[in-house]
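Re-run with default settings, no changes from the original entry. Doing this only to confirm the output is reproducible before filing.
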Amino acid sequence: RYITSLHKELKKMSPIEVILPNRELWEYAKCHAIESGERGYIGHRRRRCDSPDYYSECCSYGFNNAIDIVIQLLIDYQVSNLGHRKIMLDPGQKLLGVSIQSHKQYSYNAVMDFSY
């Protein structure tokens, strides 16, 4: 049902603009991905890393290939509010920083920090 709902949503959407890479967001994402991987942590709470003033974040675990990460987050399996999908398909998102790092428990984790 998650794939079906994604398919329906994509079919009714208008094309969105390209999201541009941003060095500052990449630095935030990298710090969080490294910290999460070292701790074996899953989630959005940062201990040692700062976060941007205004941002949206998607975290993925277990994949190190970009297309796998994007598909996982768009399907958003067992995420009741489909939060990752909403962030990634939000036409207002303009900037992005991404980092894929090793993870103690899942081998890899990716952090994607978006901003308007």
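The chain has a mean pLDDT of 94. The longest strand covers residues 95-103.
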